[in-house]
Amino acid sequence: MHEIKEYLDIGITPELAESIAVLCCRCFEDSKRTVGERVNEMLEMKGSDDPEHITGRRFVVWQGEQIVAHARTFVREIIVEDQRLPVLALAAVCSDPKIRGMGLGVMVTNKAFEQVAVGGWPAVSLFQTPVPNFYQKLNCRLVTNPFVNRRNAQEPEANPWRDDKIMIYPNGFAWPEGTVDLNGSDY
Ligand SMILES: CC(C)(COP(=O)(O)OP(=O)(O)OC[C@H]1O[C@@H](n2cnc3c(N)ncnc32)[C@H](O)[C@@H]1OP(=O)(O)O)[C@@H](O)C(=O)NCCC(=O)NCCS
Questions:
Q1: For 142-184, what is each residue's pLDDT tens digit?
Q2: What CA–CA distances, in Å, run from 91 to 1, 64, 156, 157?
Q3: Rounded distance from Cα 105 to ligand 1 centre (Å)
Q4: pTM of the predicted protein model
Q5: In the chain, what are the domains?
Q6: pLDDT at position 141, please?
Q7: Of 49, 63, 131, 173, which cross-links 68 as Cys (Cβ 3.0–4.6 Å)?
């Protein structure tokens, strides 16, 4: 029986960061980041006063000494038509290629989504994905707004996402129309 553990980014240890980084490198092979680079990025969050680090959480499933499934969340304030909207940023959802199809991906994702409770804060999660069918089964839906990142001084109007599928959870959230300023880089 697999259990989920939850960790705060600001309390992350080198051992935990290493286990997460090893899994992420195996699951996101197109990413050029090495295990060491990923570990350093995570350890920089420790003790940080950046609100995105303070709100950062990891949901992981351990199997012995190894992490076999992982999801990361933090709170981002996006801007739509001059209104700020806090969203739960979801990133790095992955499970060990050797034990896929056993429900671990769904487990960590649903646990992450529990933070988006009805009447809770934030009220909606926003993320990019190469596997929209996986999320469609979890009460998520695609959104088609133009996205920009006006904190990118060089290219403020460029689309900040890598994936072309952008989704929200829950499906029934009254998501706004119009251009969305991601107000930071993608995740
Ligand atoms: C996507 C991923 C997390 C799924 O993990 P998993 O542990 O195999 O998922 P689960 O076993 O919980 O899958 C449960 C359901 O999702 C479906 N599913 C799994 N991977 C899927 C995919 N790539 N596309 C569509 N559906 C998928 C399964 O068929 C299953 O559906 P069912 O219950 O109706 O049969 C895993 O394939 C992965 O790590 N991929 C590489 C990294 C990645 O792309 N992550 C997503 C980033 S947004």
A1: 999 999 999 999 999 999 999 999 999 999 999 999 999 999 9
A2: 25, 24, 22, 23
A3: 6
A4: 0.96
A5: 4-181 (3.40.630.30)
A6: 98
A7: 63
Residue to substitute in 100, 108, 127, 166 for testing ligand 1 pocket (most ligand atoms within 8 angstroms of CB): 100
Name all residues whose Cβ lies below 6 A of ligand 1: 27-28, 93-95, 100-106, 129-131, 133-134, 137
DSSP 3-state of 25 = helix
For the chain, residues with pLDDT lower than 50 are: none
Q: For residue 127, give the ligand 1 atom closest to its CA.
A: 48
43: three-class secondary structure by DSSP: helix
